[in-house]
Write a structure and sequence with these properties.
- With about 400 residues, the protein is an all-alpha fold.
- The C terminus is likely disordered.
- The relative contact order is 0.07.
- It has 3 domains: about 60 residues, no CATH class; about 100 residues; about 220 residues, MetI-like (MetI-like fold, Orthogonal Bundle).
- It is built from 12 helices and no strands.
- The longest helix is centred in the N-terminal third of the chain and has 104 residues.
- It is elongated, with a radius of gyration of 56 Å.
Length: about 400
């Protein structure tokens, strides 16, 4: 092998030239790198010892310093890159932490603003609810005062007119005479038994007639509302029966069923039936067709549509009819008893009328009015429970109307 720097022969295993000290990265074979000039003796070439360059020799120092410099440069570059990368990562983390703190601060500020706004809104709502409740209490008190004032005025004027002779107490009665008559009935009873028994008979007839009329009215109203063919066929007959005077129907029922409970219940049921029927029929016809179409798309059967779509939609109409029909049930029972009965408030009124007992007639009417008011209050409670899913109306929110 020959040195790649000076061209002198070197041992094949030598990494440094013994003369120039150059590092032999790729030595050339003798056949390819023979320098121009007289060749060296082969024996001498073979006997030259392969001595490694010494670090103390002048020929080995440049290579040593070059390697050391390269190592120092590499170390400095590595350390600098490592420091730069660490510094860059630290800066990035610091910026990210600052951004997170900023976002967290903004969120805390937003949450505080939302909390403050919600607290202010809750306070405003509480104030409005308090004012609404106060207005409602004042409204109820004013209504009660007005009702009591009207009752006191009527009773006082009636009593004063009877006492002064402005009206004849024999025909018009008097409030004091009515109180005396009711007290006598409560203690001694009537000509047909206990006064409380007469009240209970009328209540029983009214309740049974109301239930029968409501159930039948809702059933036929929904049926004819859902089946137009039946509505066209049966509709004229329903209108004919509705046009008949109730007194005529009561007389027919008494001839058919006698003077007992059945005739009064049937008459009360007829009066209730037509009111509930027409409201239920109109309520079914007013159901949103889109709701029915959606129920059909979801695979609901006819019975499921009636149960889950039609009846809830028509419930407002039906409930509205119950207030009127409840009074009609009491009227039907009283009229039936008045036409012919064995006991009941209608019979008490008929007897008082036949004996010209004006105080007795007005006393029985007063009891009927009290029953009607009690039934109306119970119906209002039932209505609120059945229609609890509806939004509050203007009257419920104490919003002034007309």
């Amino acid at each position: 092998m020959f040195c790649t720097n000076c061209g002198k022969a070197i041992a094949p295993e030598s990494k440094f030239c013994p003369d120039c000290g150059a590092r032999q990265t790729a030595g050339l074979p003798l056949s390819q790198s023979m320098p121009v000039g007289p060749p060296a003796p082969a024996a001498a070439a073979m006997t030259v010892p392969a001595a490694a360059p010494s670090t103390s020799s002048p020929a080995g120092r440049p290579a040593l310093w070059a390697g050391a410099a390269a190592l120092v440069v590499a170390l400095v570059g590595g350390v600098g890159y490592w420091g730069w990368s660490r510094t860059d990562d630290h800066v990035v983390r610091q910026l990210a932490d600052e951004e997170q703190r900023r976002v967290a601060a903004e969120r805390v500020a937003e949450a505080a603003e939302i909390t403050a706004a919600q607290a202010l809104l809750d306070k405003h709502i509480a104030v409005e609810e308090g004012e609404a409740q106060a207005r409602a209490r004042r409204g109820r008190q004013q209504v009660l005062v007005g009702q009591v004032a009207i009752a006191v005025f009527i009773v006082a004027a009636w009593q004063i007119s009877a006492m002064t002779g402005f009206i004849d107490p024999f025909f018009f009665g008097s409030p004091w005479g009515i109180v005396v008559r009711l007290y006598d009935w409560a203690l001694n009873g009537t000509a047909y038994g206990s006064f409380w028994l007469q009240i209970w008979v009328t209540i029983e007839e009214s309740i049974l007639g109301f239930l029968v009329g409501v159930l039948s009215g809702v059933f036929f109203g929904v049926l004819l509302g859902e089946v137009p063919y039946l509505a066209d066929v049966i509709g004229p007959y329903i209108k004919i029966v509705n046009a008949l005077p109730r007194i005529v129907l009561g007389s027919i029922f008494i001839m058919w069923l006698g003077l007992g409970l059945q005739s009064k219940v049937l008459l009360a049921a007829v009066l209730v039936f037509f009111v509930v029927f027409f409201n239920a029929f109109q309520g079914v016809r007013s159901v949103d067709r889109n709701l029915i179409a959606n129920a059909r798309i979801l695979g609901a059967s006819r019975l499921q549509m009636v149960r889950h779509v039609v009846l809830p939609s028509a419930l407002t109409w039906i409930i509205a009819s119950l207030h009127v029909s409840l009074g009609f049930a009491i009227i039907g029972a009283i009229v039936g008893e008045f036409l012919g009965a064995q006991r009941g408030l209608g019979l008490v009124i008929a007897t008082a009328q036949n004996t010209f007992d004006a105080n007795g007639v007005f006393g029985a009417m007063l009891v009927i009015g009290a029953l009607a008011l009690t039934a109306e209050a119970l119906m209002s409670v039932v209505e609120k429970r059945l229609l609890a899913w509806q939004p509050a109306s203007a009257s419920d929110r104490n919003v002034p109307g007309m």
